[in-house]
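Annual report, structural modelling task.

Input specification for the magnesium ion complex:
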Amino acid sequence: MATSLMVRQCLRGTTPIMRGMFWSRTIGKLEGVSASLRCKYTDASKFKGFKGKHKAMAFGDDEEQDRGPGSERFDLEDAEYDAVVNSAMRVQKRLQNEQNVLVIQPYVKWGPKKSGSQPEYQLQEAEALVRSLPKWRVEHSLKVPLESLEKKQLFGAGKLEELKTILSDLQTSGKLITCIFISKGTLTLGQKQFLEQQFKLPVMDRYSVVIQILRLHAISTEAKLQVAMAEIPYIWSQMKDQEGSKGRIYLTESQKQMLRLRERKLKNELATIRSHRELLRNKRKQKAYPIVAVVGYTNAGKTSLIKALTEEKSLEPKDQLFATLDVTAHAGLLPCKLEVLFMDTVGFMADIPTGLIECFVATLEDAMLADVIVHVQDVSHENFLQQKKHVETTLASLLKSSGVAQSHPPLDNVINVGNKVDLLATQGIKTPTGIQHLVSSKTLHGMHELLEEIERKILEVTGRRKIIIRVPMGGSEVAWLYKNAAVTETAADPEDSQRMLVSAVITEAKLQQFRHQFVISRKG
Ligand SMILES: Nc1nc2c(ncn2[C@@H]2O[C@H](COP(=O)(O)OP(=O)(O)OP(=O)(O)O)[C@@H](O)[C@H]2O)c(=O)[nH]1
Ligand SMILES: [Mg+2]
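The model returned the following structure:
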């Protein structure tokens, strides 16, 4: 049901001939794979052996597939909840409006609480978060050194006066600031209320800005549920603060009950989706499609790289943080013509509160169970080494906490790829330490070499071999090979007109089976 629905959806816009081709080639072979159209690379010479045949498949963009058949629908729209989340996050209603934002990046100058990232880069990232929201723009931004980020009112009296003067100078110089983004994970409700009184403007923290972006970018049911789930710890934390510091009750008993019920329902719903996802994963494993997960820091070019590797036109890279929130799979061909699935994933980012990340961890399970992981890094970014470190540390801890590490080799199946090489000075580019391939998803530089490396790694980790085998013309051997291996080429045998040469990629186990069935039994 799920497959046929998705296939039907994906075939919209294709011609009858294409549809015919699709049904005959795909059904019973690729589970849940969508439209397959031929198209050429702009610079095909760079892609020897990779002719551009591809298919795209999006796990997570089909509701039936997301949820599993027969599951009940959970309505995310709830006026009572909206009232609660709006007051906790403050900005929902203003999301559609234009905002001129003053970005403040507080940072600890010395001591153990000093962040690993330099404040310049943290500020750049904070600005990029604001720019990821349509109609929001950075009117002014500044870094503020502090002794600690844990003070009750965040800023001391002197610093606060300084900031108020800066704000009033900006207003008098004609810059109309409409809200203040303090780029710290979470501000307590007390801090927010105090600062809003002082600045007479709405104040947002990193958690609430990221949630706004995620809400906008969530497309699939799973992503929407995950974002809804990610909001709940934030509301609880804001409520706790209000009760603790002021002794007032921020949520009524019925609102608390509503929140608990919503949390429970979301958990159940996500659990159902995840068990269905696991089922799909197992099906894919049975079909023996090797899987290449593409991971990396947000905006590194993961989606662009997959688009370049698969020619999948529907993929839309965007200059926004957290543009991709759904794990999607896109079929591509390796130079040996073996079909593989490239999985696009959610980007990583430093200084994101744990409550937020946790909701997206399960989405990354598919990536963690992949045969090969391509770690895309933006080598044109000044801070790319720090970004690399952040992704590696997070991936390693995800592997450990999810228990995947026991069943899967630790990150030794990773290929480190440096993307956006076209943005580096052309003279004397040196491959940075730890990077195996320098590529440009824009100019397609280095793509063929990368595909060859992916192929080498895939064959190694999945125990597959490339073989050329001589079989009787039209015999059952050929049919067997088509069923059990990836046949990449067939040709007439120049030495024997009764035989043909079949090139195939096959696992060692299947090769043994072939020998047993056709070579040994014939001898016997
Ligand atoms: N110049 C240049 N720009 C690139 C290259 N690869 C990607 N970009 C640009 O970088 C931006 C981000 O690209 P995406 O592919 O969306 O990045 P992503 O890693 O998928 O980002 P998220 O999904 O948000 O985590 C887009 O504006 C791309 O056009 C490249 O090789 N060269
Ligand atoms: Mg993306």
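Residues 302-303, 323-324, 344 surround magnesium ion (ligand 2) (CB under 6 Å).
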